[in-house]
TrEMBL record, chains A, B, C, D:
TM helices/strands, residue ranges: none
InterPro entries, sorted: Myo-inos-1-P_Synthase, Myo-inos-1-P_Synthase_GAPDH, NAD(P)-bd_dom_sf
GO biological process: inositol biosynthetic process; phospholipid biosynthetic process
Family: Belongs to the myo-inositol 1-phosphate synthase family.
Name this protein carries in UniProt: Myo-inositol-1-phosphate synthase
GO molecular function: inositol-3-phosphate synthase activity
Amino acid sequence: MRTGVWLVGARGSVATTSIVGALALRAGLTGPTGCVTELPELRGPALPSFADLVFGGHDPVATPLAKRADALAAAGVLPARLVAALGAELAAVDHEVRPAPADGSQADRAAAVVADLTAFRDRHRLDRVVVVNVSATEPAAPPHPAHTDPDALAAALAGPDEVLPASSLYAYAAFTAGCPYVDFTPSTGARLPALETLAARHGLPYAGHDGKTGETLVKSVLAPMFAMRHLTVRSWSGANLLGGGDGANLADPDANAAKVRSKDRLLGEILGYVPQGHTRIDYVEDLGDFKTAWDLVTFAGFLGTPMRMEFTWHGCDSALAAPLVLDLARLTAAAHAAGRRGPLADLAFFFKDPLAAPTHSLAEQWDRLARFTAALHAEHGGAA
Amino acid sequence: MRTGVWLVGARGSVATTSIVGALALRAGLTGPTGCVTELPELRGPALPSFADLVFGGHDPVATPLAKRADALAAAGVLPARLVAALGAELAAVDHEVRPAPADGSQADRAAAVVADLTAFRDRHRLDRVVVVNVSATEPAAPPHPAHTDPDALAAALAGPDEVLPASSLYAYAAFTAGCPYVDFTPSTGARLPALETLAARHGLPYAGHDGKTGETLVKSVLAPMFAMRHLTVRSWSGANLLGGGDGANLADPDANAAKVRSKDRLLGEILGYVPQGHTRIDYVEDLGDFKTAWDLVTFAGFLGTPMRMEFTWHGCDSALAAPLVLDLARLTAAAHAAGRRGPLADLAFFFKDPLAAPTHSLAEQWDRLARFTAALHAEHGGAA
Amino acid sequence: MRTGVWLVGARGSVATTSIVGALALRAGLTGPTGCVTELPELRGPALPSFADLVFGGHDPVATPLAKRADALAAAGVLPARLVAALGAELAAVDHEVRPAPADGSQADRAAAVVADLTAFRDRHRLDRVVVVNVSATEPAAPPHPAHTDPDALAAALAGPDEVLPASSLYAYAAFTAGCPYVDFTPSTGARLPALETLAARHGLPYAGHDGKTGETLVKSVLAPMFAMRHLTVRSWSGANLLGGGDGANLADPDANAAKVRSKDRLLGEILGYVPQGHTRIDYVEDLGDFKTAWDLVTFAGFLGTPMRMEFTWHGCDSALAAPLVLDLARLTAAAHAAGRRGPLADLAFFFKDPLAAPTHSLAEQWDRLARFTAALHAEHGGAA
Amino acid sequence: MRTGVWLVGARGSVATTSIVGALALRAGLTGPTGCVTELPELRGPALPSFADLVFGGHDPVATPLAKRADALAAAGVLPARLVAALGAELAAVDHEVRPAPADGSQADRAAAVVADLTAFRDRHRLDRVVVVNVSATEPAAPPHPAHTDPDALAAALAGPDEVLPASSLYAYAAFTAGCPYVDFTPSTGARLPALETLAARHGLPYAGHDGKTGETLVKSVLAPMFAMRHLTVRSWSGANLLGGGDGANLADPDANAAKVRSKDRLLGEILGYVPQGHTRIDYVEDLGDFKTAWDLVTFAGFLGTPMRMEFTWHGCDSALAAPLVLDLARLTAAAHAAGRRGPLADLAFFFKDPLAAPTHSLAEQWDRLARFTAALHAEHGGAA
Ligand SMILES: NC(=O)c1ccc[n+]([C@@H]2O[C@H](COP(=O)([O-])OP(=O)(O)OC[C@H]3O[C@@H](n4cnc5c(N)ncnc54)[C@H](O)[C@@H]3O)[C@@H](O)[C@H]2O)c1
Ligand SMILES: NC(=O)c1ccc[n+]([C@@H]2O[C@H](COP(=O)([O-])OP(=O)(O)OC[C@H]3O[C@@H](n4cnc5c(N)ncnc54)[C@H](O)[C@@H]3O)[C@@H](O)[C@H]2O)c1
Ligand SMILES: NC(=O)c1ccc[n+]([C@@H]2O[C@H](COP(=O)([O-])OP(=O)(O)OC[C@H]3O[C@@H](n4cnc5c(N)ncnc54)[C@H](O)[C@@H]3O)[C@@H](O)[C@H]2O)c1
Ligand SMILES: NC(=O)c1ccc[n+]([C@@H]2O[C@H](COP(=O)([O-])OP(=O)(O)OC[C@H]3O[C@@H](n4cnc5c(N)ncnc54)[C@H](O)[C@@H]3O)[C@@H](O)[C@H]2O)c1
Ligand code: NA
Ligand code: NA
């Protein structure tokens, strides 16, 4: 099952780490640490292998992937020896990264994306292409009347307005080109009625939002712990310090607000009430691609006794995100092959702010993911 | 369903907090925070109500419960107003706390315990008495040939040797008196073949070991998180600082070793390998009934990138333990009423070192507990 | 040396804790923990004794001190037994707390404060009255042309404008009444040219700004450590979570900004460069009078090796501040008695943002304080 | 002033980092971050320049320095580009590292060390050689009657006994060869009456013990902070996790005990009382040359209010130690040149367990160091 993975933001940290990692796995130079789909509970025949994956993407920036990879190696994100060993393979992927279309109406730009996707699929004789958005987080998009209906949307895109934020324009183009779409960012992406209808028309699955890699991952197991023990969480405060491209982008208050909102939903839904406290994101250039999150939880036990817990998470965001990008591409490709359509709620395990949010508890999300994957394997086996 | 709760170590911190809490709940002076069996998912008709519980127990120490409770209030464990309001009720329980039998052969002491249990059950016309061990942690017990067989055991107890550690002698007496037995401590308790056979002969359920209240509770959700994400835990180190009676007792190296062993099993079983690192327990008198645990976890992600997490847990051990003691008494009473027998593996949720350890993942333990409780309620409903 | 201590904000947490503590010390009910002036290195004859101190003050709020003290006892700030034992003494101080003047022009209000101060001094036959501002932090004050000259200021105050922020109006009144003034808050206080001239005219000393009690105290020893070791601090980020009245007030963005500015000066001055990073203050009601500060410091060592340090401070702000308020009142009274005038730079030890900031290193501040106090004692001894 | 730096343990992590760093400084490839003697307050003409330093040493291990340096680069301790650039220079130093003498009586071994030192000094026409012990920490040495007198010692060394631990045998040889001696480890070194007398006879200065690089450095500023604020430290507990060669060595309980003792003296001396709590050192291989220390301090403020502070230090031990080794070599050489003799108490700034311990407060140690260095520069200027 030859599968295209088209990365929007293909020269960013997450994308570069995903590409280097997949190439290294294919070459047998590394193991699948961090790849959830390689766990015994999920592994199986329905998923394309790493060797089946072909990478391409869009990015406005032109820095060669090998140069980005060198920088990530210097920052301790990638092993320098891997980057050195994969020079030729990285150069090959470089040819498949197109400049992000920037001219003409939004309809023109969408058409250019569709053309890029179609040409990529044809050129490599791919069974399908999964589009994954790993570009910079956008500010929350302003509403527009054409957001509710695909036909109104098509008409509006041809006009002079910026009708859609970039993430949604990519989703529009992906669906138009018959490609499933995954949003790894908190941006709007496919979350507009017009796009949901469009995906349905084309019978396409999609997934999102916002890869769950650090503080929220920990929250998704700690909050259920407090709930299962009937302990009352009085406050939950978080400080997130991060450098890197994503950190610089989040220094913009609007992007920051979008990210915080995406992080904040979880507690209320798991606990059944919203504890006091705030989540902050601050840019600290010196941290590079690493993120330090510190959380303080105050809680009350039996007879109201006050207690507290704090944790510090010091993670490399790109190294945490990249294997999930590969997992999502493989799972979404398999879902598409199996005829799944609409929002893939069973992939909630991977997201801070999951579509159709069935649950925010990691353990429950895991159970759903395991059942979902088992079904794909069973169907695939049946079909084989 | 009038249910006796017989606490071994009835004047200790955990016992006193359990008793004050149950009396306060019965009087409507407090809510059930921390009581797992009061969560909507577990609540139901099969469990005795708080008003159904009658307390008694053994302790070598004679300090009145009200005095212990005052000390716990001064230490911030209990609200002073509750202790003040419950003076009469506490005095009533005081009459049901017997000195721990200390004279004669172990057979004589076991007989004295049986007599106390039987008299208590009769005096209060109780449907059953659940014996819960919350006494000081013992050093690991030396093996003895009579540990494998109930008849050999009965014979040996009549002799001059200290054949059984105290926790096991209480289990022996409990089973002999027809009482289910719960071990909230890491001590040997019912974990001897002779006692398991004895419980089977009497058709009795039992549960244990070592209430899971702090660092291990957190581990039981964090370790599965690393496992579900296919992240490699390189090391996991823990420093536990605690004061209070339990802390003083654990300053004894042998008791400490028993406790650490009980804490250490979890990681290997959840992760499938044993990471580097040590767990330490140190006595720091100034911490009183609070415990501070600090854990450092180093882990490797995609392509081997090294990352780290640390957490500090600052919990009031008795306030965390007491509602679980009530939960265990209620659940074990209901299990007994429903004819369950043998080790209650479905209560693993409550223990650091669960009997018949089906799993150490808190989420999976929760699922088992929920199914177990639902079955009890369903049977009870059917019977009603 | 009978000394009045006039607290602006006399019913707040810091003021109430100061009063209860001084009364308890006088009554021999507690020891001088936290009182710097009771250390062997500083103690001596020039300072008024605790028994010499007489309390009064202004506050717009009318809650009796005993009620505020009860609330602080419930919150774990004050021992309940002390509050109970000091009922009569607290009621006596209550009579000396006046409503904050609120009517008329600012000149009228200043005159009312002068009258209150003078009457208090006379009524109690005090040698002097030290005015200490412990009221809520103000937003930064807008500039006004009359701020540069005392005569222009006197004229402007008689007009309809709010020429001075409250803290400065109190400083104006204090100086007019011949009283030294201490600002324990980050508010403007005496920091206006007109007020500095006024203090000089009256030959009065004054001190400030912003009592150093938590994160900044720690910074004032850690930053010199990095400097003395020639380690390069790359970033220093701080998250401050606090409840209580001060916390609620700081939830106001302007007051917050004033406080953060006052905290931020230190690093640049000690290190000689400003590292990356931000200081945040967030209100978390559940923390009550306690504050949790978390700081992350990243630094580079030999050959650029990156390292990191983090600390969590969990302090009771009022309990840390109150003994310093007493120290400052005693030291400022002694300085006044010894004829010191102008800004007391030697009291920098006590402040986040010291007047005439000679140094921010705590150890150097300590040396200055010790020399300053020794001189006062020596002169006093000579005079005796 | 051509100065030899003779490193006992010359192939260890600290030694290798010191050598690479000095060579890089000499070649202008790096800056003096971490070098205290390069601060404006200490810099000056009395100290040998980096270009004046010539390295040699003893080690039983034969691994070439370049190989050790490569390993340290892979572990993130040294920048790989520095190691690559300094290949020739490292090979040159390699020729000056001799196998640690292992045969014959202790007198024979001492004579071999003396011969190595003398030949090194002559071969390079050095003004002097400073011997610095950076070898593995020894267990505490058993007492021996010959430890009190140099002549008895000389006699005993010729016999078959292991009279001196290795660190002391090196000190003996250094003094015999007319070389000042610095002990960067907690081992016995020069701390025996016989050796002190010997140093005095030869008019030699010496310094030690145990370089202060992590937890203890932080303690030496935090403990004075609590003392200066008259806050009562109730408990101070520390967990030290470290990998690397030093960590593996400290896994040995006896070496561990020596190290803990050396760390524990400080608190009692700064605070005037010994708080509760323990210091633990645990080996965690995965941490490599980095050390994570976690400390919990509980303290009481005004009216006894309980508070707490914790810190985590994550430092690269070798990168912290190496510049201090260079500082100590330069300062001790200058002291020798200036005719200082006996224990250099003014170098306490550098040590966990300083000789003639004048004070443990870092700020006071800094003041002494600055005065000491200023005097050396002044004398040197006078002499020039
Ligand atoms: N790393 C994580 O752990 C993590 C977790 C969840 C979500 N995310 C999200 O993933 C995204 C990428 O993160 P990153 O660290 O790689 O950021 P990055 O800044 O390194 O990369 C973003 C890339 O997107 C490109 N880009 C910007 N606008 C674009 C456009 N219109 N079309 C195509 N490309 C565009 C940029 O040129 C850049 O190369 C962010 O939105 C981040 O919030 C990351
Ligand atoms: N508090 C927690 O979070 C927690 C969690 C898990 C397990 N535990 C275990 O619970 C037990 C009780 O803890 P605690 O804090 O109440 O300790 P504690 O020291 O306050 O109380 C123990 C009591 O047991 C009594 N005792 C000692 N020997 C006895 C005997 N032979 N027969 C009857 N009573 C005896 C003592 O007199 C004392 O009153 C400990 O074993 C502890 O390890 C506690
Ligand atoms: N607690 C600390 O550690 C600490 C440290 C440094 C500075 N401070 C400063 O001390 C001040 C007091 O802190 P707190 O915790 O007691 O706050 P609080 O809110 O408990 O008390 C402030 C009091 O000031 C009174 N007030 C408000 N406006 C006034 C006015 N115009 N005239 C007179 N009184 C007025 C309020 O009614 C209140 O009673 C704050 O400015 C705080 O920033 C406190
Ligand atoms: N790194 C720090 O921050 C720091 C701080 C204070 C003290 N120290 C001390 O410095 C010493 C060195 O630390 P390290 O990390 O370099 O350890 P390491 O294990 O890397 O190096 C020790 C070296 O000493 C050598 N050695 C052992 N016995 C010897 C002998 N008899 N003669 C000569 N050499 C011998 C070993 O072969 C090894 O090469 C330790 O004692 C440590 O406790 C280190
Ligand atoms: Na921490
Ligand atoms: Na912490």
